[in-house]
Structures are given as C-alpha cells and as structure tokens.
Known about the structure:
The chain is mainly α. The protein has one domain (3-161). The chain has helices at 3-38, 43-77, 84-107, 113-116, 123-131, 134-161. Helix 1 (3-38) packs antiparallel against helix 2 (43-77), helix 1 (3-38) packs antiparallel against helix 6 (134-161) and helix 3 runs antiparallel to helix 6 (134-161). The two termini are 21 Å apart. 14% of the residues are buried.
Amino acid sequence: MAPTDWFLLLVRWLHLLAAVSWVGGSIFFFAVLRPALQSAPQDSTLSRIAGQEFRSLVDVAISVLLVTGVILSVARLTSGSAGVAYGVVLGAKITLALWMFALVWFRQRRRPLAERLPPPDGQPLRRLASTLSANNLVLALGLAILLLADLLGALFEQALAG
C-alpha cells in the first residue's frame, strides 16, 4: 500500500470512529442513561453533568467528521470511480449531516420546545413535542447517515468492480 492509501485508511477510521461515538453514544444516552437517570432521586444534576460531557464528545466528533468528511469526499469524487448515483447519495448524506450539526449547534442556544409549551393542560402536546425533539431527530438522522455511508461504500465497490 502506498502512503496515500495508509493516510486515507487513517482518515476513514477517524471518520468512522467519530460517527460511531456520536450515534452510538446517542443510542446509549437515550436508551440506557436517560431512563436510568429519570428514576434516580438526583436525576437533574447527574443528567446535566452527563449531558455536558456528552456534548463535549459531540463537539469533537463534529470537528473530526467535518475535516475527515471533506478529505474523503474529495478523494472519492476525484478517483474516477464515483458515478452519478454516488454523487446523489453523497449529497443526501452531506445534507443530513449538516442538518444534524445545525440541530446540535442551535439546540445549545435554545430551550427545548417541550419546556416552552404551557404546563399541565398541554400534556399530550408536551409528549408530542418531546417525541419530535431535536435529540430524537439527531439520533434518527445519525442512523440514516450511517445507512447512507454503507450505501456509498457499496456503490463505490460496485464501480470498482466494473
């Protein structure tokens, strides 16, 4: 393998590590940690601390994903093996990723919708807002992006095979 191939392997690994850390961490946070913290007596303090630590991980992951994503996109698009379908799927993946990044950046500056709704009498509305929250949308987008990444790999391999 040429040094360029080793470099791209490292970049792909870092990209994958950042994506898995963010999406996998989100799954753990929402499926395991959040329910456990809601049943704990001092859940608000622990939840706030865990959220801050996870947000730090997400900030690093976003930086790594942006840098490595640009490198990988340029490498694949200039390889001569990426066709129109590859470009369309890559465009969709980039669009979803940017949406995901925006949700994280703007969520840090705003109160969640569920907190801005009127109290008790708006309970069903609060539940709906919580279901459609930025946190849940970020997780859904992350899972969709991982699917598109796998599709990109398959499209690229298919183009290489001829």
